[in-house]
């Protein structure tokens, strides 16, 4: 007689899985069997199917903490609702994914605080703090917990008195920097912009400052160029900006000051006297004075500076002068392309054709695609280029003729008869002949 074996005890995992999927979860007896399968079955899919029907929170927490496969642990976490059980998983599960999944399901503020304080996983702690909104709990964590937890808590603080305390007294510069982000007290910010020992904190403070006097002080006197540059970017005082643009030892700070300058005379002075070309290009980019720009475009030693000047030129007559007389082809071509007065452009082209030096011809070669060129101008350019081609061809013919003549002369010389003379070596063996040993040394 064959004994009946329940499907959940079958050696076939498919049958065990089928039983778990069809089991009534409201039957207490079934819950016991589901717990057994969820914790002890050798097949992952069976355990996962059992977890999907399991309701006991302690059993689910056990699986979430201890199962060897992530998919089973994840399924268990998804079934958990008990905040204390979720906290245990967040603190103790064997892998970071399960711990993070548990934190996502925790809503109780006290439970989140417990996880933030007691979990050993850095990411779990920060994730728990990120979900906190209770300011009292956040203040407690900001003052008393691990540094990385304190930093995350400070970021979420709104209490200005606590933030002032953190900015002024906290030993960790990361925490002070985080506190600065939410601090609005300008007096405290101004004080700490000069006093904080860490340059990154001072830079963060500068980004919040509005007081121009403090910004001017920092931009001129801070020992770190990054802090001075940050302060210069927030300045509006043109006199202070001019001083920094001309005198700061760091080119990036000078460039930052130039970017805020509007005084045309100071900008022109920077272009003339600054040693760093990047700063000079920045100054040119702020210039509007067409006469100054004309001189820079024509005569400056640095190509980038000249190009920046041409970009800023708007006066058509000035552009025409640059196109005719600047020191290099690219600058002249840039100026030509910016001329939008068809009559003026035609006059410039006529001037180049009439003058007709090598550089003028090169300019005519590279501007043929300008859209506002008249048909007549295009024909004149093509004609000028044709004349140039004829000159080149003529020079090539002359060169070829000279080469041919030279070859003919060489052939004639090679074919002339030579009288070979042979000397006996004894004629050169006496004094005064250097001891020549053989007639083969002479012809």
Q: Can you put this structure into words, describing what you see?
A:
With 443 residues, the chain is mostly helical. Among the domains are: 185-280; 288-414, no CATH class. Helix content is 70%, strand content 0%. It is built from 28 helices and no strands. It has helices at 13-22, 28-40, 44-51, 57-66, 70-79, 83-92, 96-105, 109-118, 122-130, 135-144, 147-155, 160-169, 173-182, 186-195, 199-206, 212-221, 225-234, 238-247, 251-260, 264-273, 277-284, 290-299, 303-312, 316-325, 329-338, 342-355, 358-366, 375-415. The N and C termini lie far apart (129 Å). The model is unreliable at 421-443 (pLDDT under 50).
List the total number of helices.
28
* Total E-strand runs: 0
Nearest-angstrom radius of gyration?
Answer: 44 Å
What percentage of amino acids are in beta strands?
under 5%
Order of helices and strands: HHHHHHHHHHHHHHHHHHHHHHHHHHHH
Secondary structure class reads mainly alpha
Share of residues in helices: 55-70%
Unreliable parts: 421-443
Q: What general form does the structure show?
A: elongated
- Major sheet size, sense and barrel closure: none
End-to-end gap: 129 Å
Give the rounded overall mean pLDDT. 85
Task: Briefly say what this structure is.
By secondary structure, the protein is mainly α. It is 70% helix and 0% strand. The chain has helices at 13-22, 28-40, 44-51, 57-66, 70-79, 83-92, 96-105, 109-118, 122-130, 135-144, 147-155, 160-169, 173-182, 186-195, 199-206, 212-221, 225-234, 238-247, 251-260, 264-273, 277-284, 290-299, 303-312, 316-325, 329-338, 342-355, 358-366, 375-415.
């Amino acid at each position: 007689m064959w004994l009946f074996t329940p499907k959940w005890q079958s050696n076939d995992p498919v049958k065990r899985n089928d039983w778990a999927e069809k089991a009534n979860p409201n039957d207490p007896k079934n819950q016991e069997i589901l717990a057994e399968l969820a914790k002890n079955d050798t097949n992952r899919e069976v355990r996962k199917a059992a977890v999907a029907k399991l309701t006991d929170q302690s059993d689910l927490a056990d699986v979430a903490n201890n199962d060897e496969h992530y998919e089973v642990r994840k399924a268990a976490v998804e079934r958990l609702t008990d905040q204390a059980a979720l906290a245990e998983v967040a603190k103790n599960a064997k892998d970071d994914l399960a711990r993070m999944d548990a934190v996502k399901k925790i809503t109780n503020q006290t439970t989140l605080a417990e996880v933030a304080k007691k979990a050993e996983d850095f990411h779990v702690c920060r994730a728990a703090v990120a979900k906190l909104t209770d300011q009292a709990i956040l203040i407690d964590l900001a003052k008393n917990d691990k540094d990385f937890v304190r930093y995350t808590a400070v970021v979420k603080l709104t209490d200005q008195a606590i933030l002032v305390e953190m900015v002024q007294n906290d030993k960790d510069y990361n925490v002070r920097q985080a506190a600065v982000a939410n601090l609005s007290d300008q007096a405290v910010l101004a004080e700490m912009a000069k006093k904080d020992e860490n340059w990154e904190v001072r830079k963060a403070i500068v980004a919040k400052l509005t007081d121009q006097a403090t910004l001017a002080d920092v931009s001129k006197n801070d020992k770190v160029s990054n802090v001075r540059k940050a302060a210069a970017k927030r300045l509006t005082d043109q006199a202070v900006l001019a001083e920094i643009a001309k005198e700061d030892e760091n080119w990036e700070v000078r460039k930052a000051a130039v970017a805020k300058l509007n005084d045309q005379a100071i900008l022109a002075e920077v272009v003339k006297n600054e040693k760093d070309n990047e700063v000079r290009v920045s100054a040119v980019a702020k210039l509007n004075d067409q006469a100054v720009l004309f001189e820079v475009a024509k005569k400056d030693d640095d190509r980038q500076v000249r190009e920046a000047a041409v970009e800023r030129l708007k006066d058509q007559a000035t552009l025409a002068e640059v196109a005719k007389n600047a020191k290099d082809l690219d600058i002249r071509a840039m100026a030509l392309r910016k001329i939008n007065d068809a009559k003026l452009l035609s006059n410039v082209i006529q001037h180049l054709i009439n003058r007709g030096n090598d550089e003028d011809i090169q300019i005519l070669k590279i501007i043929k695609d300008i859209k506002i060129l008249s048909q007549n101008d295009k024909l004149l350019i093509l004609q000028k280029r044709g004349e140039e081609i004829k000159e080149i061809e003529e020079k090539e013919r002359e060169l070829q003729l000279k080469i041919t003549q030279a070859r003919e002369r060489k052939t004639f010389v090679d074919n002339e008869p030579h009288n070979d003379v042979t000397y006996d070596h004894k004629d050169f063996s006496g004094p005064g002949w250097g001891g020549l040993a053989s007639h083969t040394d002479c012809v």
